[in-house]
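Tutorial, part two.
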Amino acid sequence: MQTLKVDVGHTSYPIKIGPGLLGDGELQDSLIPGRDLCVVTNTTVARLYLEKLQATLAAPRNTARRSDARRIAHCVLPDGEQYKTLETAGGVFDALVGARLNRDSTILALGGGVVGDIAGFAAACYQR
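Running the prediction step on this input gives:
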């Protein structure tokens, strides 16, 4: 697995890439303890990986340093470059509001391209 660190001045965040990551405890360890999250993905990727990711994220972690209790929501976008729109981003906002997530919640992009772009845009804009 590779971890890329993205530095945006006042903060930074990791991007993890590699096989087996969806079932790996390291993914949970990289998340802020107890912070609610929303998985943003598309129809193609969701069919293959969303269930496994949600199971991994919901599994209790036996660590002495924290509790991992969190709410997990998801938003499945249509697949394709033509869906990189404000309307699609609005669907992510609707999912976040519907799950009653706040500005401190984590948005996790499961997929690349449009999914990463829309998830990143939503994360930058939600409740700002």
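Residues 39 and 74 are 4 Å apart (CA to CA). In part three we will examine how such features are distributed along the chain.
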